[in-house]
From TrEMBL:
This is Vacuolar protein sorting-associated protein VTA1 homolog. It comes from Calidris pygmaea. Residues 175-202 are annotated as: Disordered. Its main location: cytoplasm. Signal peptide: none annotated. InterPro entries: Vta1-like, Vta1/CALS_N, Vta1/CALS_N_sf, Vta1_C. Belongs to the VTA1 family.
């Protein structure tokens, strides 16, 4: 990654410190996701404060990191094409969410699954780089953030968490207190998460996602091929229709990289329905 180290995080940028830490953690195994985490932090930081000297200095160094990553991964279409990048980040966030959700529903409560729920919610924040969140992703983010808080607080209080979706009331999660020695992002290489709380990609089962029930409002059932109407020959598609169909195909391709057949099929069927009927 870029050699440019970040200066101390200004207090004004507290809300983006965990996105930056996630970028550090993913630099080696998921550099594309790490890039967009930094881009999100950059865009959010600019909105918060781009005039105070310490903030301008921090944002300038962060911009240097982004430029260095662009040069390093300039031939990666997930960096050069937003539609591919969006699909890549979304599928990685979903993969992390499903890992944590699977552990939760199996009653396997531990720090890695709490961290995975919370990090999935951060990565859904990052998706706002590409535009407004879908209702599905907004529900995922709300649920994941609440689950992380709920399970953490249960374990902290010596209580047994209840698996699966339950009422989302009154939980808060102070991540900083739980990550000793990492209350702020200082520079690349100086702030490292403890191994006990680090999400590891190889902890995730990659072939059993299709049977998992996602919380209410998350995934609607995909159409079966028999439910896709036949083209009557008089449907006129707009350039926007073609762009959306292309987006769904890109999402499907990215899902297949993670062996997530269910998501791939769902997106391909969405593209097919759009091309045949002109409607989603």
């Amino acid at each position: 990654m870029a050699a440019t180290a970040l200066p101390p995080l200004p207090p004004q940028f507290k809300s983006i410190q965990h996105h930056l830490r996630t970028a550090q953690e993913l630099d080696k195994r998921e550099p594309v996701v790490a890039y967009y985490c930094r881009l999100y932090a950059m865009q959010t930081g600019m909105k918060i404060d781009s005039k105070t000297p310490e903030c301008r200095k921090f944002l300038s160094k962060l911009m240097d990191q982004l430029e260095a990553m662009k040069k390093q991964f300039g031939d990666n279409e997930a960096i050069t094409q937003e539609i591919v990048g969006s699909a890549h980040v979304e599928n990685y966030a979903l993969k992390m969410f499903l890992y944590a959700d699977n552990e939760d529903r199996a009653g396997q409560f531990h720090k890695n699954m709490i961290k995975s729920f919370y990090t999935a919610s951060l990565l859904i924040d990052v998706l706002t780089v590409f535009g407004e969140l879908s209702e599905e992703n907004a529900q995922h983010r709300k649920y994941a953030r609440w689950k992380a808080a709920y399970i953490h607080n249960c374990l902290k209080n010596g209580e047994t968490p209840q698996p699966g979706p339950i009422g989302m009331e009154g939980e808060s999660f102070d991540v900083e207190r739980e990550e000793a020695g990492s209350s702020s992002v200082q520079s690349e290489g100086t702030t490292q998460p403890s191994s006990s709380s680090t999400y590891e990609a190889n902890n995730i089962p990659t072939s059993n996602f299709t049977g998992i029930h996602i919380p209410p409002g998350a995934h609607a059932p995909a159409n079966t091929p028999a439910e896709v109407p036949h083209n009557t020959g008089d449907v006129r598609l707009t350039p926007e229709d073609f762009a959306r169909a292309q987006k769904y195909c890109k999402y499907a391709g990215s899902a297949l990289q993670y062996e997530d057949v269910s998501t791939a099929v769902q997106n391909l069927q969405k593209a097919l329905k759009l091309l045949i009927t002109g409607r989603e």
